[in-house]
Amino acid sequence: MKVVHLCASDREGGAAKAAQRIHAEVLKQGHDSDLIVMRGDGRAKNVHLANRNLIGRLGSRVPTILDSAVVKLFFNKLPGRAWSPGLVGCTNLSSDRRVREADVIVLYWVDGGFLSTAQVQFLLALGKRVVWRLSDMWPFTGGCHYSEGCYKFRDECGACPQLQSTLPFDPSFFTLKKKTSWNTENLKVVCPSSWIRDLSETSRVFNGVKHHLVATGVDTTIFRPNFGHSTHRSETERTSDDKKLKILFGAVNSLTDWRKGGQELRAAIKIFSDNCSSLQKYELNVFGANDEALTSWSGIDVKYLGSPSLEAELSAIYRSADIFVAPSKEENLANTVIEALACGTPVVAFAVGGMVDLIDHMKNGYLAKPFDINDLANGIQTVCEKIEESDDLAVAARTKALVSFDQEKQIKKFIDVLEGNENAA
Which pLDDT score, from 0 to 100, does residue 92 have? Predict the structure, then answer.
């Protein structure tokens, strides 16, 4: 089987991680596999930069800028939101031998200047099997990556709330209209979470398309607890200068992306600090943010851990933490949460999106009422207290990752879909 994977990057964000992991495992299983990207270093085996068209030759960031230009010039888009009309693509896929020879084409995160909606239609019209792994909602919306509770994509977009538009025929209307003309006869959709599957199945674009639920997986030999059979960092196992209970928060642009819940965490930490009689024994660790954004946290000591890119570095960060907080306001299936669980680190999050697939309330973490910062603060306090009492939450976190999110198991399910197995998950 010859497989070609298409993703905007091989290094930036969760989609890039998934594409890299799946591509590597398909190769390991003995299939021909190539990953084509718009941006990346291309150092991994069979990873290639896309053949560039005229726009693409202007620079790897230029297509992204041009694709969003119409939105930025004419509409007052809400800040911190990813929004792409899919007007611009940087590559000539029609001239790419790997695409022409592939038995299966796999799409990941392809907008933002990599593939236009017209180029997606070209791929779908080739008559090959196409599998689209949903990294977010963009493939079936009028341009937003997360809809913030808007369901216009089920019928007709226009007057887009994220563009703060009152026009019925704005870019969201035309983007959705183009997507509804796609030929989806040979398309299958892979959904990492039950949340995004339910949304996609009811969308105007993918209604009637076969959907498969295949979770994101992580390498549980890399993301693993530190020691023996125990996953809890007991007092005797802490170093002399590592006595504090560490509360960890992190993601790409963790404090500037509105969706990641940085402001909600800041408010919850203030409540936690105000109600904590022994605040000196806690420390907040943050990765994936600019250290300048870490000022004015109420009372608690804060340590900035940078933006680690290597999995071994990330694993060490999760292992050093006692609790991971993921206050996302909208989320598919967060890599950070899976990675934390695999390292035996319990997670506190709002009960939104794919978080309910990951966290079993009071067993391997805490699911707070959506956007209730008091309940989020209560979750942090509750989990901190429980991990000091026993290893139960930590052991359950590791077990959940091994059973439901082991990379090898999940990618085998994904390969079943690639091979056309109708009984695949």
Answer: 75
Between 136 and 52, the higher pLDDT residue = 136
Q: Judge whether 158 and 168 are in contact, CB under 8 Å.
A: yes
Report the alpha-carbon angle 103-105-110, nearest 5: 170
The pTM is what?
0.90
Closest to 203 (Cα-Cα) out of 128, 132, 262: 132
- In this prediction, residue 13 carries a pLDDT of 80
Distance CA 327, CA 308 (A): 20
Work out the angle at residue 113's Cα, subtended by the Cα atoms of residues 111 and 117, and round it to the nearest 5 degrees: 55
Q: At what angle do helices 335-342 and 311-320 cross, to 10 degrees?
A: 60
The alpha carbon of residue 369 and the mean position of all alpha carbons in its chain are separated, in whole angstroms, by: 21
Residue bearing tokens 């003309």: 181
What is residue 186's DSSP assignment?
T
CB 246 within 8 A of CB 320: yes
DSSP 291: G
Q: Report the first-to-last Cα separation within the chain, whole angstroms.
A: 20
Distance CA 87, CA 84 (A): 8
Query: Using an 8 Å Cβ cutoff, are 381 and 272 in contact?
Result: yes
